[in-house]
Amino acid sequence: MRISTSVCALASLLLAAPVMQASSVTVNLGQSAQNYVLTGQGTDNPYGTYLNTQGSCVAGASSTTCSLTGAFTGTTAGFTGGTYDFVTTYLGTGPSPLGSISEDPIGGANDDYFYFDNIPAGTTMYLQLDESGGPDYNIPIFAGGSFVGGFDVLYVSPVCGGTSLGADPCDQIYVGQFLGATYSGEVTGSATFDSTTAVATPEPEWLMLGGLPLLLAMMLRRQLAGVRA
User: Fold this and answer.
1) Domain boundaries, the chain
2) In degrees to the nearest 10, what's the CA dihedral of 5, 8, 10, 13?
3) How far apart are CA 14 and CA 21, in angstroms?
4) Which of 15, 82, 127, 180 is positioned for an S-S bond with 139, CB 3.0–4.6 A?
5) What's the whole-model pTM score?
6) pLDDT in tens, 97-113
């Protein structure tokens, strides 16, 4: 029921930006408004293999964007609470191509954990945080072909669908044995990232105030032009 990802890029980020004070930040992701769906592939039994659909998806002209949204909390200043949008974008307009496999085979201690083993080129995952009373952040989790942050998810009340599991119970590991079986439900979780990767975007009110002098200058110029005419 959990997902394992990698944060091995943190050391290189620290080396790349020595003048910035870096720290690891973890936020708790509250129950999502959308379902996280695992679709069984049955290609490596007794391991579970899946295609992962990370939220509600909308296809564009040449790519698809999927979102998981909810509320978040944290203990690091600037990341203490608000709302989140976990955004996954992949090339193409068909079903999600993100592949994963169970950590252990059926009966193993971690057969309800999975990790990504196939993320196609061009895929990105960003965590967008809207801090209550503060700025919005756009944080890369997977970009440039590798994880630069980490996240995990835990199902709340998953249900099975699609291909019948026969006599097997509705468990994540069994879903991965059957092509077309699904394991779906809202999730909670957490995300971990380096503070130097969190890019703050100003609130619209700040943008308006920041652009006010320029707007006034443009209005004055137009007025003077009108007088000269």
Assistant:
1) 2-201
2) -120
3) 9
4) 127
5) 0.81
6) 999 999 999 999 999 99
